Each structure stands twice: as structure tokens, then as C-alpha cells.
Amino acid sequence: xxxxxxxxxxxxxxxxxxxxxxxxxxxxxxxxxxxxxxxxxxxxxxxxxxxxxxxxxxxxxxxxxxxxxxxxxxxxxxxxxxxxxxxxxxxxxxxxxxxxxxxxxxxxxxxxxxxxxxxxxxxxxxxxxxxxxxxxxxxxxxxxxxxxxxxxxxxxxxxxxxxxxxxxxxxxxxxxxxxxxxxxxxxxxxxxxxxxxxxxxxxxxxxxxxxxxxxxxxxxxxxxxxxxxxxxxxxxxxxxxxxxxxxxxxxxxxxxxxxxxxxxxxxxxxxxxxxxxxxxxxxxxxxxxxxxxxxxxxxxxxxxxxxxxxxxxxxxxxxxxxxxxxxxxxxxxxxxxxxxxxxxxxxxxxxxxxxxxxxxxxxxxxxxxxxxxxxx
Amino acid sequence: xxxxxxxxxxxxxxxxxxxxxxxxxxxxxxxxxxxxxxxxxxxxxxxxxxxxxxxxxxxxxxxxxxxxxxxxxxxxxxxxxxxxxxxxxxxxxxxxxxxxxxxxxxxxxxxxxxxxxxxxxxxxxxxxxxxxxxxxxxxxxxxxxxxxxxxxxxxxxxxxxxxxxxxxxxxxxxxxxxxxxxxxxxxxxxxxxxxxxxxxxxxxxxxxxxxxxxxxxxxxxxxxxxxxxxxxxxxxxxxxxxxxxxxxxxxxxxxxxxxxxxxxxxxxxxxxxxxxxxxxxxxxxxxxxxxxxxxxxxxxxxxxxxxxxxxxxxxxxxxxxxxxxxxxxxxxxxxxxxxxxxxxxxxxxxxxxxxxxxxxxxxxxxxxxxxxxxxxxxxxxxxxxxxxxxxxxxxxxxxxxxxxxxxxxxxxxxxxxxxxxxxxxxxxxxxxxxxxxxxxxxxxxxxxxxxxxxxxxxxxxxxxxxxxxxxxxxxxxxxxxxxxxxxxxxxxxxxxxxxxxxxxxxxxxxxxxxxxxxxxxxxxxxxxxxxxxxxxxxxxxxxxxxxxxxxxxxxxxxxxxxxxxxxxxxxxxxxxxxxxxxxxxxxxxxxxxxxxxxxxxxxxxxxxxxxxxxxxxxxxxxxxxxxxxxxxxxxxxxxxxxxxxxxxxxxxxxxxxxxxxxxxxxxxxxxxxxxxxxxxxxxxxxxxxxxxxxxxxxxxxxxxxxxxxxxxxxxxxxxxxxxxxxxxxxxxxxxxxxxxxxxxxxxxxxxxxxxxxxxxxxxxxxxxxxxxxxxxx
Lengths: 376, 777
Description:
With about 375 residues, chain A is an alpha+beta fold. Helices cover about 40% and strands about 25% of the residues of chain A. In chain B, the strands form five sheets. Chain B has a seven-stranded mixed sheet, with helices on both faces. Chain B has a seven-stranded mixed sheet with strand order 7-6-14-13-8-9-10, with helices on both faces. Chain B has a seven-stranded mixed sheet with strand order 18-25-24-23-19-20-21, sandwiched between helices. In chain B, strand 19, helix 21 and strand 20 form a beta-alpha-beta unit. In chain B, helix 16 packs across helix 21, helix 16 runs parallel beside helix 22 and helix 17 crosses helix 19. Chain A: Its EC number is 2.7.1.33. Chain A: GO terms for molecular function: ATP binding; pantothenate kinase activity.
């Protein structure tokens, strides 16, 4: 055992994982050391090699596991080692297969610590123990989220900023994504959109509170889309939504008042009643699955925007950061959120987004693993 | 957002085959003026103003100077006069009947000079031409939200027990709230197809501070897509049978249990519809509808709480078609508000929520009649009360109304401004009624039976009071039918008119009697008894004057109590009085319980009397005859002799055999003629008669004549005496006053006596000194 230059104690054996087991998705980050010396390689046990090879040489695992190659952080220095941070996800429904694999690959023999956060860290704890002989270190979900987010922002995205916003959010033509820095992040309102939604007011790295939450989140979007359109995946649902027209499903202010409702300063184009047209049978018979998917997406997104905005006002915070896997490949929602924040606050609020959307909890879990090794 | 709902229930087809019982519904149309209409997605609400000619009993003193008094002459004359008062009518019916209704109105609209009809609601556009064609009135469209707010202010101000809290698992589902003297500011969350959140700060100052597109239309539209169920109420019924846990992802589905460190319980919904993406199985319609209902209710509740907190508002009313009397949605909204505010804010609902738009539109058109300058009272005889619209949850009501759902609200213009008694310790927490029969099932059953049994007697009395009118019997029969129906309704829906109380049962009876032109069934009895009692006045005074001070004080109190036995409102007594015409003052005294009484603070009262006199006593009197003349007057005379000014407050209108202000004027005059002490007090203005503003055998100290309140304040009243079962037991028994008070009554009902731990004719003598004053002594 020796001390390396950054002060990490060399007790930490590979592999380094951080895991966030959510309601719908499991997010896994894996640090692949690129600075392995020849001796190290020789000493490396076969099972460890096999894991590394399996993870880094594939982009898909089984039917449902995916490595988000475009998100990997290269030449990252962690705990004195340099390597690549890989971002992998698979459905929580496949958790049992993952645990099986852990047993099959003899993971427990590696004497590593498996740091996990998210609800599943609790739910699957005993399965890890009994099936794979693995002891999970359970970590607080919100701590991990905030620490992971601040860390990834600080190291940047392979030389580019992690954070971005939309310029001219109120103008669909001129609306463009702009990178920015989160150099002075506090206070921020952090809106984490997973299956459900949590809203946090963050004042510093370790000072935050959960303001509220809503059950209308990504799970609701996908769940309703599956029921309404028969689709099966998030990608499929988003693909349909991108082609649909929600105004055929939603009742707008102008559908009721013929134009703007001036008495209350409501624009004619504002949604008065989500799915409001669907009260009528004729209308129900004349819409497409795409329209329904789009309306579901718009409804859920606007609602999250509305709650976030109210919380920001109540908490007197101007910076609203949206994260979570609901925003993955979902520019409809990110742009809509940016617009909603800007429009309803008359420019007071700014919506910020991060490239690694849903992975911060897992990164936070990995950081805890590394931090544990620093403690004397 | 808007309450507008596109009619998808086939309301376009006009069904004319249904025969209306129209004169029962569109009452007083021949005197109607100023119409307003609020047409929603499925229901139409019509409002109009009418003048009602009804009979009132008046008493008039004979000209005694011109006429020699003889024993056979009654001391005053009773006459029945026609009086015209204003009434507001609100009728709610399904849009299907709109054409039939308009035809009926057109045929019966005789005297109106009205040229326009105020209209609001989304359907107003659609039916504009039809209305203009049928009624030959110009449709004048009013802004929906302003109407809603105007209507809301009106009911909050004028209808006691308008507001309620819903508690599904409570002893009573509906907990009614007292009228708050200051109704502003409040938040109105109107859940139509979308949601509008409006902050109301004053009569004409309100602002839409927010809203949401996820509302009733979302429930209906999305629900129809998911379950292939078309109708809104069917969707609600589906939801009430479903289990959301198979569709929603709960915290325990993610964590395996509760998430303690965030205070999230395992049963909390983490993701609405979260299970429907992964599960292979089909979901039942019921479960999906339930999940959808929770999703929408929770979302609305959360937004309402965020807005309430931001604007620092604690009174949040919910309305709109999503709520409208549906127990299912009232429950989920209540649950949500409770969850998000940790119990700090209660979800409030309104009994006449469905009428707000129509009331508001009407008020806008009636500004020249200044409806807002007057006080209005709900007419229990003409109003159908709160009905549940979910047929499944209320089969009884559905059965009675058939499929023909008409609902009515009538409000009478009161002759005076009603205000709080300035001596209430806390007017906002004051509740007049001692027992809430909506909560107390045993008491409810007893009193409903009791009133039903007493009905024969009341009918008989009503006929006897109008012997000269041959059709009186027929009218009395109609009265019987109406009141019995009301009792029947209350048996099944105790909450129909707000809190059910002995007072409301009595008041409903008075309203029904008035409805059938029996303004004062007891007028002749009162006359006779007053006459009889006057003859004994001087003898009673003489007996009292022979007593020592101590003896006289107890004799005065016993006299007061004995007088209070003469109460035609108590069945036990009316039976005695009917069968034994000789039953007199002395016999009544013998009936009284010996001391110690059931509640007995007489000793403290006597001690107090040994101290300095009160400055001014306000005395709420009860019955005519022995009570007022031989009980109250001698007692009052003693107070006057101590140097205390006395204000006698009596009913403005008749109720049972209670002495009315008109009668009391004459009686006082006659007593003054016999008794120089009273004469002197009158002329020195130390004895004053005022009217209470009430026509009830009970007493609501928060709705009293403004003049009375002024007199009370000006005279520096420091003692309030409340006499009788109706005023001191059924109501005000627990009323806390800011000055000394004396509540006394004889319990003339064995069931009530038993409840209070005594026997019939037990005496309550409750002298109270508020703790603040006690400190000074």
C-alpha cells in the first residue's frame, strides 16, 4: 500500500463502479483505467479483465443494456488514475439478470465495494447479498445527485462545458442551444425528472432541501403513451411525439374564447385543457397516435415547468437546472421547459440543462466510493 | 380555466316529451323580472328576481281612549296584511330541457318589462339564438370569471353554512363552517376543463394568479381514451371502484418500503402510470380511472398549495364541474391539499357552487336594485338543498327525483341589515347551535321524529288560526306535505341545508308555514294568553313587593322560569295546555325543579346583585303571555329599580308563540298604563324595545338587527340575559360573551333533559362572567 500523488490511499481495488437504481432505469458508471502498467496487467485477475473487456468492447448489453458512447468522459483523472468514464443504462426490470451476471462473473471475488444509490439500492439489497454474495453500500440519492452533478460540471465534457441553455427560447426559429458554465451554481433549483420528479433547492454542495415532488414524470409520459398508442419504448414514444400535433388533442384558449382571453392576459395559443378535445367522440375518432404521444409529452412537460416555476418563485431562486433521463434525446421537452421558464417569468428565470442528464446519481455514488478510500 | 365543457352528452337533442311540473319549479314567474342564465356543458342555471306577495300578521292596538274596556274584548287587534318582498330564484336543470323550459317561461312571463337576459358560461354562445327567439330578450354576455367571483362573494356573505370541509371517513361527511364576517381574501380554484386559480381580495378586486391545463377536461378526455367510457360521471364511478396501486409506481415499488429520510411513505405515488410502461398485463378500466383521478387531483392540489403559499392565503375554495358535489373528487382534492400543506390548509367547498355563475350574472344585471346592499336569506321551503349527483352514491335521491334533475335555490330579501352582536367574545369562532345533528346521529333521529310527531299539532293550529278561511285546511295539508318531505330529505341527507340543527328544523318549519300563507298560526293563542296574563300582572307585583330582598330575588327568578314553561313549541307543554286550559302560572311554578337546579349558579348571581348595578341589560325574550308579562316584566322591573337600563329584544317576525316586537310594543304600553315604574322607565328612555331581526324560535347572535347592535354599543351593555330553550339551550348554550351573561331555561323535553342528565322541567340557570372581567373584581 502506498500513497499516490493526490493523496488517495491505494487500497481501492478495481473495478470502480457507481450505480443508481431508479424506478425505471439503472444507471451505471464505470471507470476504465487507461494507465495500467505492465505489472498491474500481469497481476490483474482474469475476472477483472473479463469485466473490463465486456464493458468496453460492447455498446449494447443483452437486449436492453446500452452504453452511451457519446457521453463518455475521456482522459479523466480520478483518484490519481487516468481513464475513461463510461455511462451505461439498462431497465430496472432487468436488474435480476444483472445480479445473475454478477454471480456468473464471480464479482464477489474481486473484493470491491459496490456503491449504489436510488430506491433500488434498498429494494435489491438482499438480492445482491443472497444471489451474488455482494454487499451494497447504500448511498443517499440526493447527496449523490448533487455531488455527481457538481463534479461532472467541474471536469467538463471532454473540453466542452457540461451545461447549456437555450437562447431565444420564446422564438422557435431563433431558439438555439448555447453552452454555458455553472461556475456559480448556488442557489439553484434542481429539478430531477426520472420516473417521478423531485425538486430540490440547493444552496451549497451539502446544504439543500427537497422542496416538493410530483408523480407526473417520465414514468407517466411513457406509461400513458404505452396505454394510448401501444408503443413499447421511450425512444418509440419520443419518435411518435416528434411527429404529432398536440393541438388536435388539447383544447386551447382560442378554442374556447375564439382568441386570446384578454381579461386574464392569456394567449389564444395557450393550452386551456390538456386532452380537453378528447371529451368529444368525433375528436377522439380523428386523431393519430402521434398526436396523442405529442400531447402526453407536452402535458407532462408543461406541468413540470409550472411546478418548477412556482417553486423557484416561492424559494426566490432564479437558476433552474433540469436533469434526469426524461430529458434524454428529448429536445421537445427541453425547449418547452426553456420557453415556459422564460415566458411565464417574463425573463426572470433561466432554465439550464446538463449533457449527462440522468447519470449524476451514479457518478455521485462512484465519488463516494473514491471518497471512502481517502478516509484514513 | 373555463367551466366550459363541450356538450358531448347528446344535449343537442331537445327532448320535449318530458312534462315539467313547472309551477313547482319556475315559481312566481308572473312577477319575474331580470333574468340571467349560465349555460355550462351539461347543466343550465337560470336566475330571476321576483316580488312575492305574502301574508304577514300585524297587531294593532285598539283605541282604548275611545272605547270603554270590557272583559270580553281582546287587548289588541290581529290583522293579516299583504306584504311584498323580493325573492331570488335560481333553477338548475339539464341542458336537454332548455327548449321546454324557455317555452314555459315565455308562456308565463306576463308582467315583465325586462328586455335583456344576462348570460354566461360556454354554452351561452350556442344557445344565444334560441334564447333570443323564444324569449324575445336580448342576450347580453358577461365574462364568466367575473360572474363566478361575484356569485361566490354573494353566497359567502349571505348563506350561513355555505362552506364545508369534506371528510369521507368522518362522523359526518360534510363539516360546515360558520360564515366569516370578513370573507376576503380567498383563493378560488375553479376546476373546469382546465384549472383557474383566482385570488379575490375585495368585492371587485380579483386576479387570475395562475392555472393549469390539467383539469376536469383532462380527466374526462384522457379517461375516455383509456377506458372507452364516454360520460364524466361514469368515469368517476369507475374511479371510485378502482385500485390505483396496480397502475401507479409507488415509493415502495422503487424502494421496497418507505423512504424514511425524505419522509416519503411507501404508499406515496412516485410515478403516476409508472407501471403501465413495463407491465405485460392489461389494466382494468377502474384501476386506470382511479390512477388518473389521483394524478389530476394531486396535481391540482399541489399547484393550489404553491399558489396559496406564495400569496399567503389560507382560505382555498374549490369549484367547477370537476368538484360539483362529487364525493369522489372532493375526497381526492381534500387528501391532496392535506398532504401538500401538512394539514395547514383545508380544502373548502361550497354548497351552492353550481350556481355561482348564474348568481353573478344575475347580480351584474340587477345592479340598479342594489342586491348587494341588502342581506339575503336562504328560503328552506323553496330550496332543494345540497344533493349528491353521483347516482350510485345516492340512490335514494335519484329515486325521488327520477331522471329529471331539477334543483332550486331561493333567497329572500331580508328587511334589514344583519350584523354580529358586538358582545361576542370571538365572532369568527361563534357557533350558535349547541348540537350539530349532522354529526350526532342519535340526536338527529330523535329530533326528526319529534318534529314529525308534532306536525299534526302544527297543522291543526294553522287551520285554527284562519277559521274564517275555508281553504285553510287545504293549504295546511300542503304545508304538511312539504314539511314532511323536507324532514324526509334531511333523514337521508342531513347535510342538505348545511349543518342540521334544531334551529334549522324550526326555521324550515316557519319557512314552510309562510310558504302556504300561515304567517302566524299562534296569533290568537298569543292574544288570549297575553290578555290573561295582563290581568294577573298587578297581583303578581303585589306579592313580590311583600317579600324581603333575598326572597324576592329567588321569587323573580322562579317567576321567570315558571313563565318559560308556557311554550307551545314544546310538545310536552302544548299537550298540557291543550288539555288543561286552567293550567296557570302557579301550577307552572309547581312543575319546576327544586334547587339545586340542573345547572345552578344562582348563588353567584345573588352575590353579584349585592354589588353595584349593571349599566345596561340586554334581554332576549321568549314566549308571549305568562312568560313575558308575569316572568320577564317583574324581573326587568327589579333591574330598572337597581338603576340598570334594560333593552328588551324580541323577534321581528312571528315564530311559534314567541312574543313579537309588534306585540311587545302594545303589551308594554298596557303594562305601563298599570305600572308607574315601567311608565317612568319608558319615558326616561331607560327601558327600550328593539327588534332582534329574527323570526326564529332560536337565536343566532351573528345575525342581528343592525339597530340592536348600535343600541347595545351606545348603552354600554354589560349584561346579556337569554331566556328559553330555543335561545339559551338549542342555541347559545356555549356562546362566549365578552360581558356577564345569564342563560336560563326550563327543559320541557324529556329526551333533552335526559341528555343533559336531568328530568323534564329541569332548570338551567347559567350565570357566567368572562374571565377578563373576573380579574377586575
